[in-house]
Amino acid sequence: MYHLKLCKGLSYYGMDGALKATRKQPDVLTEDKAIADAAVASGFFKLVGEGEAPGFPPPGEVLGHLDPKQLEELTIPDLKKLAGEIGADIKGLKDKAAIITAIVAVEVSAPAFDAEALTAMSDEELKALVEEKGIDLTGCETREDALEAISVALGGSYTMLDLIRE
CB under 8 Å to 51, separation ≥6 — which residues? Predict the structure, then answer.
């Protein structure tokens, strides 16, 4: 199963009806690798994941894993509390590193990004973010183009920025 997300255009109807996506429903699943490859090559979609059918995060959120470096700063009681909140199985684990490993293995949803904060960033702040995240801005001619590319790279959809502008 291939999970694709519309990243360009307001809607897409193509591949002989195999793919249909809109800015309100940008996620598409297909079992056909050729269709997935062609969709990504078209530039209208990005591959979000492959394998078993993924669970879709709530709108405006992405699925991911917690950062083990940040978890190292927490105490064992705090880690155990966090594990309980996200459903991590830590039964029998006493070692902090093992608890962290169990927590990091759990997929969690988080806000894709704060679109308003992104649009409010200065050019210098945006440049630093682009460098930090390794975001490709090839083909971006305006600030709005860059913001759209950054939002997509951060797991959001360009449509969130469109909605802010409206």
Answer: 1
